Amino acid sequence: MTSGYFKIAGGTVYDPLHGIDGERRDIWIRDGKIVEPPSDPEVRSDRTLDASGLVVMPGGVDMHCHIAGPKVNSARKMRPEDKRKGEKVVRRAGTRSGTVGSVPSTFATGYKYAGLGYTTAFDAAIPPLAARHVHEEFEDTPCLDKGFFVLMGNNHYVMQSIQRNEPERMRSFIAWLLGAAKGFTPKLVNPGGVEVWKQLPSGNVHGLDETVANFGVTPRQIIEQVARAVDELSLPHSVHIHCNNLGMPGNWHTTLETMKTLGDARGHLSHIQFHSYGGGEADETTFNSKAPPLVEYVNTHPNLTVDVGQVLFGETTTMTADGPLGYYLSNAFKSKWFSSDTEMESGCGIAPIEYKNTSLVHSLQWAIGLEWYLLAADPWRVVMSTDHPNGGSFLAYPQIIQLLMDRTYREDMLKQVHPAVLERSTLGGLSREYSLYEICIITRSGPAKILGLKNKGHLAPGADADITIYTPNDDKTRMFELPRAVIKSGVVIVDQGEIREPLTGKLLYVSPEYDTGIESDIAEWFEKYYSIRFRNYQVPLDYLHEAEEVPC
Amino acid sequence: MLTLRYRGETPIPIEVEGLTPSAVRAMAAGEIERFEIFHGNRKLPLAEFFDVSGDPADARLELEGDLSGVHWIGAQMSEGEIHIRGNAGRHVGSEMSGGTIHVHGNASDWVGGEMHGGLIHIHGNAGHLVGSAYRGSRMGMTGGTVLVDGSVGNEVGLTLRRGIVAVGGNCGDFVGANMIAGTVLVFGQSGNRPAAGMRRGTVGLLGSTPPALLVTFRKNCVGKPLFLRLMLAHLESLGFTVPAECWDADYSVYNGDRVTVGRGEILVREASA
Amino acid sequence: MSTAASPAKAGHSGAEGTDAGTTVIQDSTCTFCGCVCDDIDITVKDNHIVDAKRACVLGKAWFYNHHADDRPSCLIEGRPASVAEGVERAARILTEAKYPIIYGLSDTTSEAQRVAVGIGDTIGGTVDTTTSVCHGPSGMAFQDVGEVTCTLGEVANRGDLIIFWGGNPAESHPRHFSKYSLMPKGMFVPNGRKDRTAVGVDVRKTKTAKAMDLFFQIKPRSDFEALWTLRALAKGIDIDPEQVKNDTGIELSRWQDLMVRMKAAKFGVILFGMGLTMTRGKHLNSEALLCLVRDMNAFTRFVAKPMRGHGNVTGADNVVTWQTGYPFGVNMSRGYPRFNPGEYTTSDTLARREADAALLIACDPMANFSQPAREWLKSIPYIALDPKDTPTTRSATVAFTTATYGINTPGTVYRMDDVPIYLRPAFPSSHPSDFDVLSAIQRRVAELKT
Asked: Which chains are within 8 Å of B by 3+ CB pairs?
């Protein structure tokens, strides 16, 4: 007679959402969820995992990465050399083979994330025209629950609605579009700038108040109005923003303006490290860190959240919906370059990159990311990321954890980077060390909360049974690289580094209400300018393997 | 000297990566016989296809037989000598960093693919992509020398970064394409579009009937470049036969490829007076 | 191991309007060529398509020539057998082989392609697609230099200078001009054809040439020289007019004029075909074109698009890439993916007699590969899946007659510009789908391999 219970016994539990900071507790699981212990004390669990002395955390949540869709796949296609010498994922009885490099193949992506104790990941930027492609890749990316953000910052209907001063129409469109693609929230990437790129050679916007030709809107308007619409729709996650002027010296002004533009509206600014630069007019010799004033603004504005976008030294691949940025990077590094403009919606740029610790700029980028973590007052609002793979691979997350928890390790690395980092950033003087509790926040509890996922990132009854168990180790990289066990939906999917059961995972999406009357207007606009039929654009629910609607 | 006599009669690829002089040097005979190689998707011991005899201690391997279906011979080797008495397959000396390989027969494609150092001497013909990059790589060969007495196919020295490739016979199209630096010399006839996309470095088209060059190469001068004589002498010292007419000939020097930074040169041998 | 939902489940027949035994299905998709037109209204009567509104001549042939038939779904060595027996025999052939190859895949759904790659993984085989005999060279060029491109709607909305190089879309992709590249009244090209300049570059005057404003009939096999001339002109490099004329057959002044137009365009587009990829130079021809387009972006917006042939060859590239990391010619003998065109591509593994078994899906190498390749293929055990009876199916050890994608089965396909489109089938077939047969084979090989 089975009870259906699975118990994780006596682990040292971290559940920051409920203020649990390393307490010895049991966790009860049933039917894929964390549940209250059985009321009848005679009831035994079918299985018990003895977690005494082990650290137990909710499964990791990567709220900003690039793991699926046309952009990611083009990067895979473009870089056979990146994989030829890289790690190989060998086929086993229950698992598929794959390749890694900086843009792993889909099965490898799932296994590797799970191998680090991650159980949820969100792709940061998808043009809705390619939604089906993402859903297909997601089905081949096991072990994770997944979702994606829908690119809207250069969407023609959005810009048109702003120009015509039709906020309700825009709001309805956003709601419709999220449901049509089965996406999670609007994503703004270089709002307005990519449309200018499509119109002009090296075209871009350089400030929030530049007008996008032929649309008569400014980035500021796009940011403000989409943010407002998102809050009016009560979407679980806020608008997600890749600010204009990414990577440019002096861009901290743009970032601050973006934050101010949001006002009280919720907003998440992604890979904020790339947007925290002081310096003169495109002059890299004055390049310096402006993390402190930006952190201060975020500290004092609880409506704002960020993920860091940490840079790590080594080779990787930049991939972004920011078309002009891709062009800029490939010229700067004289590397091969992929660019694709998606009609009506977005752009894309891909270029290989190597971050070197001998480079002043790269060293500062590395330092600025760390400054963000170390200066931030509220770990709930500063999420760990590398903007995988732009700043580095997600496989480097354990190393970032060690940099945050181990001041000596950090200082040793600081000695090996470009010396200008000491004058141009405050990193040299920062002695803070993160606790396990705080690491738990920035890698799972915080992002789950920011995403509005009530069943993720914590360990109270009702949560999805996504749990990671680590063996404590002073070497934090080792500790976080090799969890003792990873549980997904109540199933042990990774056991001492071996993938046991690669579940497919589910798709998390939103489908906010909207005035269906708008559909005829959308259809008319759509049939006029899109190259596929309106009826073939939407992704029906039965296309998806397993999906869960997150309520608004 | 360790002798490996090939007994295989299979068209299914046999792959022997890791079978290098350094690897087998300290192995006992039994261990060598059990060395894992691949026959298609089957992992098998070396003895399945080779008769093993001799002593590997001097870091010299002799492979005998028609090994045109055996691939990756000498891949990644760093020291020692390999002699193939017969033909060899693909990827001979791929990514090697030191040591010497002699193929006393023909070799297939990708001889010396992305090698870093050492010497490969093919005494017969070779295939395409001699001394070249693998697909997508930012650069190809970064050091070492490849000598082919016979003829070769297309894309010799593709994206060459450093090192020397010398071809006694003819070469196919696109010799030295996308070359970054280094030297490729062809003593027979060459196919079309030589040095397309070349950045720096030297391609010598030293045969009697040079091909048409691309329109983005511009004739600079005619002369007897000293460095070429030094290079020819160096090749001879390595056991490569340099045709007599090359020593005192006049050479036209063309600069290009001007669609790139264009600081490379093609040397074309002028017919003797 | 595939967790892909059966496309049969994700029903999307979209059948509307029934009238006395006829059904009209709107917004149906034609998968004959890479245009993947999804605006075809098909009328079905008695399991036969009697009308295909808006379909071009190729599409009509595609739709009209599919009827329900009662050929056996499976033949083993030419004799009718059950599908289950065929699956068993196929699984044994594939698991016993030391160098099994899987090839084709361009005329089936991505759901089926995903299963096929999984089979390749399990059996330690080599997976290759028809890309390797078509735009594989363009894929290789892309790996060297990248690519600047866009979706076809951008061409329709912005493209004002359209160059067709080495292809004949008027005959190979009949609706391309009207739907995407020349006729559409786009957002920034409101007067349609009048706002566009059409340029053709080819070695012969084809039907496409007649539709062009300018035509460059270049010397055969001089595409590379022509592209290099344009690259030089773009960079303002001085070149010898006599050599240009000699190399390309076209006066320098004409190329200069073309470059002026290219720089003056707002959004230039070069659509290129087999004339580049399958003539001397191959991937380096494609690379020259991709470099030219990249260079042009310093002056104005410019994009390149390979004109993909079969309905879902783009899907094959995408699926093989996301599952293995590489787009075609992927060997998994070692238990992990390796890529090397010329080594693991099918015309090579067959001609060199390396393959000892094959699984061929929706392709016909017996009709169009080289003599050595065909001779070898005939001599090894192989399995063929095809809706049609072909030279390839006739010599197969196990031949499955499968349902036709898009006509009988739903599923996802990728247009030549990577846009995914879902199929609305017209009528059911008595034959199993590729997905069904491949899934059964996959289950069985997984059992045999453990």
From this structure: A, C
CB contact under 8 A, C97 and B40: yes
Contact B134 A78 (CB under 8 A): no
Domains and CATH numbers, chain A: 57-499 (3.20.20.140)
In a domain, C29, yes or no: no
Residues 6+ apart with CB under 8 A from C68: C47, C48, C427, C429, C430
C110 to chain A, any CB pair closer than 8 A? The answer is: yes
Q: Which of C288, C306, C324 is the last residue of a domain?
A: C306
Residue C202 is assigned to a structural domain of this protein: yes
In a domain, C120, yes or no: yes
The minimal CB distance from C422 to the residues A198, A344, A536 is found for: A536
Contact C323 A77 (CB under 8 A): no
Tell me the per-residue pLDDT of A163-189, one tens digit each, with 9 for 90 and over: 999 999 999 999 999 999 999 999 999
pLDDT digits (tens, 9 = 90+) for B121-146: 999 999 999 999 999 999 999 999 99
Decide if C200 contacts C164 (C-beta within 8 A).
Answer: yes
Residues 305-334 of C with CB under 8 A from A: 317-319, 321-327, 332, 334
The one-letter amino acid at A524: E
**What is the C-alpha separation between B113 and B76, in angstroms, rounded?**
10
- Chain B residues in contact with C342 (beta carbon < 8 A): 109, 128-129
Nearest CB to A132; choose among C146, C321, C422: C422
**Domain match, C295 and C163 both:** yes
C326 Cα to chain B: minimum distance (Å):
11
Residue C1 placed within a domain = no
Please give the share of chain A, as a percent, with pLDDT higher than 90: 97
Q: Is the pLDDT of residue A204 over 70?
A: yes
Based on the domain organization, do C111 and C147 belong to the same domain? no
- Residue type at position A535: R
Q: What pLDDT, in 10s, does the model give residues A323-348?
A: 999 999 999 999 999 999 999 999 99
pLDDT, average across residues B74-100: 98
Q: Which domain holds residue C282?
A: 136-306
Tell me the shortest Cα–Cα distance from C201 to chain B, in angstroms. 19
Burial category of C288 from C-beta neighbours within 10 Å (exposed 0-12, middle 13-18, buried 19 and up):
buried
For residue A284, what pLDDT band results from cuts at 50, 70 and 90?
Answer: low
Most C CBs within 10 Å, among A343, A500, A501, A503, to test the C interface:
A343
The per-residue pLDDT for range A399-441, each reduced to its tens digit, is 999 999 999 999 999 999 999 999 999 999 999 999 999 999 9
Residues C267 and C153 in one domain: yes
- Cα gap C181→C31, rounded to integer Å: 19
Q: Do C280 and B128 touch (CB under 8 A)?
A: no
What is residue C310's DSSP assignment? B
- pLDDT attached to residue B221: 95
The residue-averaged pLDDT of B12-32 equals 95
pTM (2 decimals)? Answer: 0.97
Which chains pack against C, by 3+ Cβ pairs within 8 A? A, B
Domain stop point among C240, C272, C306: C306
- C53, β-bridge pairs: C41
ipTM of the complex: 0.97
Spatial distance between the Cα atoms of A388 and A353, rounded to a whole number of angstroms: 13
pLDDT at A456: 98
Q: CA B214 → CA A273, B128, B204, C255, distances in Å?
A: 47, 21, 15, 16
What are C359's two structure tokens?
């699984």
Distance CA C358, CA C365 (A): 11
pLDDT single digits (tens) C298-334: 999 999 999 998 889 999 999 999 999 999 999 999 9
Total structural domains within chain C: 2
What is the bridge-based pairing of β-strands A337-341 and A314-320?
unpaired
Predicted confidence at residue B271, as pLDDT, reads 78
Angle at CA A292, nearest 5°, toward A290 and A296? 125
